[in-house]
């Protein structure tokens, strides 16, 4: 091979390695956290007399200039500097000279990247919490308007018992409240600063990790430097929390898809969040809920990916963890837009109250009420009541009626054992009465649903 070709190959290999090794093109998203962490670090160094106050002032002023350059679009990101940390530090040194070279004293890129990433995750944890709270408020508002709106409650996707639509919406409010609390729990557990852990074993410099933790809004410093630089549990928790929330988003999306179909016609989504077919103008496709359902698999993949990256890493830092960020960035962007658009879909959809009520007359939803009446009022063994109820259901089927539509004579003639049943049984088979009879704590009665709504309104006010 000629010297010329050998040099070309060498240059090509070097460029390939630079491209493979660099993270600057995605970790540049952490620029504000990196600069914020560096300013806190420089302040601590000055307080500890590791650098002078003058040098700290120069560093802070220079870092703020770099921040302005990045946010204005003037800053040029390049593979030459590998990652956001080196890119910022290099530009800082260009601006202020030798003082910029003192910034990295008593820290490593290992603790620096973990600090930046932790700050990002904590910030996003709070902002996602805020979005979840908005969505909960939307469900609660909708529920408050439909505490008397009858709809069929289902198990196995089969009509089971009458409930009210507000109660159904409050089920989702409860789901997302757990999500809200899950994010909050993660924030509390992970709000500790890795900065000052250095490469893996701490530093001989006389640093004050408690001060940098305070300056950055952490509760304190992490306890073990080796664990700190290799830890990505905070990122995994964020991915798990996002995945669980997306699972809940996918569940309501599935119901919206079903409810908006001709078979159900329970809701009608705004034209802003549905599209027509390319060849069938009569169709209105629930594109947004379908996309939300599909994106759930995407965030699951990001969670599994990082779990797999971390599963065999020896202590302490390993380059593998460079693969920790892109999936997190993607999942954060996915959950943010998903929560926003779902909130708008719920706010703007039309509830077809009449269709829901009519659907309650399919499937004999109050059959259980007849059995309960026979047990409670006639002191009948449940199994006997169960078979008598089946006879009444067969009678209703023969008349092409729902059991809730039978009159007292039709009930009495359905079985010899019911020939003298009290006329009050008719009211027990009423769909509305059936729904309201379920007034145990957490039940579907209008009164209990209203209590749930009020409880959530108070909770929302308390979560400022």
From TrEMBL:
Subcellular compartments: Cytoplasm
EC number: 4.3.2.1
Protein's UniProt keywords contain Glycosyltransferase: no
InterPro entries membership: Arg_succ_lyase_C (IPR029419), Argininosuccinate_lyase (IPR009049), Fumarase/histidase_N (IPR024083), Fumarate_lyase_fam (IPR000362), Fumarate_lyase_N (IPR022761), L-Aspartase-like (IPR008948)
Top-level EC class as recorded in UniProt: lyase
Catalytic activity: 2-(N(omega)-L-arginino)succinate = fumarate + L-arginine
SUPFAM superfamilies: L-aspartase-like
Pfam families for the chain: ASL_C2, Lyase_1
Argininosuccinate lyase C-terminal domain span: 364-436
Keywords: Amino-acid biosynthesis, Arginine biosynthesis, Cytoplasm, Lyase
GO molecular function annotation: argininosuccinate lyase activity
Domain of life of the source: Bacteria
Domain Fumarate lyase N-terminal residue range list: 12-301
Pathway: Amino-acid biosynthesis; L-arginine biosynthesis; L-arginine from L-ornithine and carbamoyl phosphate: step 3/3
PANTHER family: ARGININOSUCCINATE LYASE (PTHR43814)
Family: Belongs to the lyase 1 family. Argininosuccinate lyase subfamily.
Protein name: Argininosuccinate lyase
Gene: argH
